[in-house]
Amino acid sequence: MTARARRAPMYTPGRVFVMLLPFLAVLAIGFALPLVKAVGDSLSAGDGFAASYSALLDDPVFWDILLRTIRTAALISVICVVIGYPTAELIAGAPARVRPVLLALVIVPFWSSVVARTYGWFGVFVKDGVIDSVAGLFGGGPQRMLYSELAVVVGMVHVLLPILVLPLYAAVRNYDERLSLASLSLGGGRMRTLFLVKLPVLAPSILAATTGIFVIALGFFVTPALLGGPDSQLMSNLVSQQVLQRYDLPRAQAMSIVLLLAALAALALSAGAYNLLKRRLA
Amino acid sequence: MSSAAKTERTTFVVVGSLALVFLLAPMLIVVLASLDSGQFFTFPPTEISSHWFSEIVDDETWRASFGLTLTIAALTAVASSIIGGLAGIAVARVSPRVRRLMYPLLIAPLIVPVIVLAISFYTLALELHLVGTLFAFVMANTILTAPLVALLVMGTCLRLDHRLELASLSCGASPTRTLIRITFPLVGPTAVAGGALAFLLVLDEVVMSLFLVAPGKTPLAVKLFLQAQTGTAPIVMAASSILIFTSLVVLAAVTALRSVLARRTDEDLAPDVTAAV
């Protein structure tokens, strides 16, 4: 069927535009206008063009936190893939009666409050919390794990894991198992079949899902604010600090624009890699 | 099954099961710990009591936060299902080439880090003296939820049999009538499900709203976040439990809607919660 035949002639450009209008209005007022204003404000603030940016680039603390944010986001993406892919396989390979239950175990946390879930980890890591109780059973003392980078990483993996598992599950379900069977019958071992046949076929989906995690992690705010100490704050926390504690709006704007550029760069890189992978498979 | 195949499957099952336990554990801990009546975090709870829940219900400021959040969530849910629904239909009904051009526009607010949106929106709201207003809260949330509804509705609409619309037109119904009598009822359940999910997202939204708060105008999630930042507080556990249960109820409702629709109509048209990712 051709693309043209797939729609009724009632969708004239005019009618489509009218239907899009409310969305475009919200997008303009709530997204485009504020963003343009933020870029403009941050460029014109202070003495001379882009003064708040050059001040930012001279600040070692800013670089420190930017690099930490990128490093943490990368680490979390890797952990999520290593845990998330087997989880997707477990669900996809489960009997049809069990599958909805396992899926629900991923979907319910996904749609539950991030603050509530993060606060659960607070209860795990806090002094005399779950970990200390367990350590106590084995004669260990308090572990002092709250307000550390480890707590932040665990909390963020918890929030982001479902976002990776759900699309990976869909990809595993769509995978044509006959490809693996062909490889096995030609004498490829189980490991070689997994790593040289199945994973390369799934690679574009894995890449897309992981990029999503990475970009969300770059802008993460709630979890590091609640579970992290002064040494484990990420870019978003620094930005909000400029607004809520130092009342330095241009600086906050400049920081957030740098963060936006980092996210866009990651997306562009990933899109390039995605196209390469797709072309190789075609 | 060969032993190598068994090893592979065992690895998936072991790692996957641990991951599922990992996903559920903190939620169980929150719910159980909120049942303890003590001043400090106690797990497992030493006694079962609803002490901290009645504390929330009795507290004027928590009640106000709940009320404000429910108002914002309801308005956002309605706004984003209408705005996102219309946009979703429109984008599904243009040629694939035009759709490829519109798609980035549709998802733009979802790929920009939320803090960037929050700071930008706050700057504008400050200038226009909108900080603390209901309009600002609803607008800030609709930015994040309308694209989601649009994506869901677009998905449903693309799977829709276009001949239903053609049949209506050829029987003499006007385009507007066709839209209202044929298209809207077909995508309506997806838009409603999208609205319900938007409702859930608003309950939890911290970053956009954090900068928009004014005295007496603090949404629940922000209040929860600010309290949690000061350290351990059983009342935060209780409020968190309430949020987790609310999510469960809304998700159950969406799932029930889906299974009812799946029985009544074509399976493919039932809104899919997992598709919202």
Instruction: State the helical fraction of chain A.
Output: over 70%
CATH topology of chain A: MetI-like fold
- The CATH architecture category of chain A equals Orthogonal Bundle
Poorly predicted residue ranges of chain A: none
CATH class of chain A: Mainly Alpha
User: Number of DSSP strands of chain A?
Assistant: 0
Structure, described:
The complex is a heterodimer of chains A (282) and B (277). Chain A has 282 residues and is an all-alpha fold. Chain A has a single domain (62-281), classed as MetI-like fold (Orthogonal Bundle), CATH 1.10.3720.10. Chain A is built from 12 helices and no strands. In chain A, helix 9 (190-218) runs antiparallel to helix 12 (249-281). Chain A is globular. The relative contact order of chain A is 0.11. The model of chain A has no long low-confidence stretch (mean pLDDT 87). Chain B is mostly helical and 277 residues long. Chain B has a single domain (60-276), classed as MetI-like (MetI-like fold), CATH 1.10.3720. Chain B is 76% helix and 0% strand. Chain B has 11 helices and no strands. Chain B has helices at 3-33, 51-58, 60-92, 96-111, 114-127, 134-159, 163-170, 175-204, 207-210, 220-229, 234-264. The radius of gyration of chain B is 22 Å and the shape is globular. Mean pLDDT of chain B is 85; it is low at 273-277. Classes of the chains: A mainly alpha (282), B mainly alpha (277).
